[in-house]
Amino acid sequence: MKQFFKIFFASSLGFIFGSFLVVLIGIGIIASIASGMEEDEKVKIEAATILHFKPGMGIKERSVQDLSNFDFNTLEIKSQQGLAEILSTLKQASSDDRVKGLYLELDPSFMAGYSTIKEIHAALTSFHDSGKFIVAYSTMMAEGGYYLASTADEVHLNPSGGLIFNGLYADVWFYKEALDKLGVEFQVFKHGTFKSAVEPYLLNEMSAPNRLQVERYVNSLFDTYLEDVAKSRKIEKEKLRAISDGMLVRSVQDAKSMGMVDALSYEDEVFASLRKRLQLDEEAELPFLTMGEYLGANPVKKNIGKDKIAVLYANGTIQESGKGDDVLSSDQMLEALREIRKDNKIKALVLRINSPGGSALASDLIYRELLLVKEKMPIIVSMGDVAASGGYYIAAMADTIVAHPNTITGSIGVFGLIPNMKGLLNDKMGIYSDGVKTGQFSDLGRVDREMTPAEREIIQTYIEETYSAFTGIVSRHRHIALTAMDTIAEGRVWTGADAKNIGLVDVLGGVNLAMELAIERTGMEEYRVVNYPKKESPFDFLLSAKKASITEELMKEELGAEYVLFKQYKQAMQMKGIQMRLPFDITVQ
Fold first, then answer.
1. What three-state secondary structure class fits 98?
2. Of 195, 256, 308, 347, which residue is the catalytic one?
3. Distances from the Cα of 376 to the Cα of 310, 370, 379, 522, 581, angstroms
4. What's the pLDDT tens digit per position in 323-357?
5. Burial class (CB in 10 A: 0-12, 13-18, 19+), 86
6. Residue 119 pLDDT more than 60?
7. Domain 308-430+444-580 is found in CATH 3.90.226.10
8. Calpha distance 293→395 (Å, rounded)
């Protein structure tokens, strides 16, 4: 009875606290909506407005909201602008005579995928080419931030800050020795010389084929980077390469003398420069509007046409179910695709992919539904930072594939992992398992013993069949001879630029180009853009929010840069069935 009351009171307390939190956040949502309505009324776009753009760390495809951003002071769930909103804002502001320029404030911790950065770089360049100024400032910049800053008329660096310009570095973490100490062995099945997703569990360093593809990718990425920065800053590409190779920028004075930045300034001095541009008094308040405020006060005008173009965001690791910004659930994708297919007013689909792949089964389910959609309308694929393995599998059937030069793509190969934890369970923990089976292979997949040769042969057969299906699909849709597939497949990763040369990609560009191609294919002059999957309202988001998502955000905050290791371990433990996945989790910095 005592135990019953302990459980009862604990459950009651949890219910009361949970109910209080829901009510509190519910009040916050209402307050946020009311506050937002008041703000919309207050925010005015002045005759000489300056956009204030401060990109956050890790830019998502679309704006996102999560409970970790719940502000108990204002009772608001804050959201971070995504790439789609950033591009829309810059495009809208480019033709707005009230907007005179942009203040680009770069946080020292700014980081994003290089295709994402390149897309923003292109949008900033177009903004500047429309006759508006850009002034950039940072206390500390590395290559990613400097990529964006290079578009500015003036690049200001804090006198006590720094510019790190020493090239790109890509690293892969390896766990074999740690697994050996734990008594865990991963039994590997794969097809593809370059399919190196399994290497972290088998080796302590890159294999020669993996090193070859990583070197090719990083050098191609950096070459594109240097070309863009050289054009923006009007500095010879080879001079920039020499500065990087020798890490010649070792002080802020070096950065200025070499023409990398225009001035060494504190922020108040940057503001003084902005006032001078607008011919304002020294004490005048600068007419700043954040990107979000501007878009809220001047929303993108929607075409009034009855017909539509759908944009479907395919973002994250592909799996059968689940939810989150980094999860591409086949359940959610199938629901969206069926809705698109049944809407007779939708005349084209732009499929925006940012995925390293994942489950072969989930990838095939999405692929099949895309084929059905294609019977009714053209499909244009736009690749983001990565559209590889399963991400490429779902892209292959498109009428046109658009990628950035920096996009990671290809990786046409498959693998499977089955852990043997006998050493950990038996030897280190003293845990054993026993049972009864009706057939030789009834206990196939047990994690407390090594697989037999016959079992290995069965799993490898599945791998070969999946690889054959993968290459067959690419061969058929991309019009590449099946006999030539192994020269571009075998799990090898390609940049978007290289993928175009070998026929895996049709044209280089961003999501705006993909939209233009979709409009061109339909011949429509009037249309509306509808986005999928549909976003949840703040209230629905609150109801569906899970403890796991909050825990993940807390883990990110606690582990910092080491979170990537925890995430890789977690992903390995969650892999089910045959995988079509990028051959490594790579960090470029």
1. coil
2. 195
3. 13, 10, 10, 12, 29
4. 777 889 999 999 999 999 999 999 999 999 999 99
5. buried
6. yes
7. yes
8. 35
**CA angle at residue 18 from 13 to 23, to 5 degrees?**
125
Question: Rounded distance, CA 116 to CA 477, Å?
Answer: 27
Give me the catalytic one of 389, 411, 422, 500.
Answer: 389
Residue-wise pLDDT for 401-434, tens only, equals 999 998 999 999 988 888 899 999 998 899 999 9
Dist CA 99 CA 139 (whole Å): 26
Rounded-to-integer distance, Cα 574 and Cα 463, Å: 18
The 10s digit of each residue's pLDDT in 448-462 is 999 999 999 999 999
Task: For residue 507, give the amino acid letter.
Answer: V
132 catalytically annotated? no
* Structure tokens belonging to residue 194: 């370059």
DSSP 423: I
Give domain 16-165+249-297's CATH number out of 3.90.226.10, 2.60.120.970, 3.30.70.1150, 3.40.50.1000: 3.90.226.10
The predicted model gives 304-322 an average pLDDT of 90
CA-atom Rg of the chain in angstroms: 26
Token pair 């061109």: residue? 520
Judge whether 16-165+249-297 and 308-430+444-580 match in fold.
yes
Residue boundaries of the structural domains of the chain: 16-165+249-297, 308-430+444-580
Residues in the chain: 589
CB neighbour list of residue 249: distance below 8 Å, 6 or more residues apart: 163, 164, 165, 243, 255, 258, 260
DSSP string, 102-123: EEEEE-TT----HHHHHHHHHH
Q: Is the model's pLDDT at 4 over the cut of 50? A: no
In sequence order, the β-bridge partners of residue 497 are: none
Helix (H) or strand (E) holding 93: helix 83-94
Contacts of 461 (CB under 8 A, 6+ apart): none
| 274: amino acid identity, one letter | L
Q: How far is CA 316 from the centre of its chain?
A: 7
In the chain, the N- to C-terminal Cα span, in Å, equals 59
Would the CA dihedral through 54, 57, 59, 60 be positive or negative? negative
Residue 42 falls in the annotated catalytic set = no
pTM over 0.85: no
Alpha-carbon distance 401 to 479, whole Å? 13
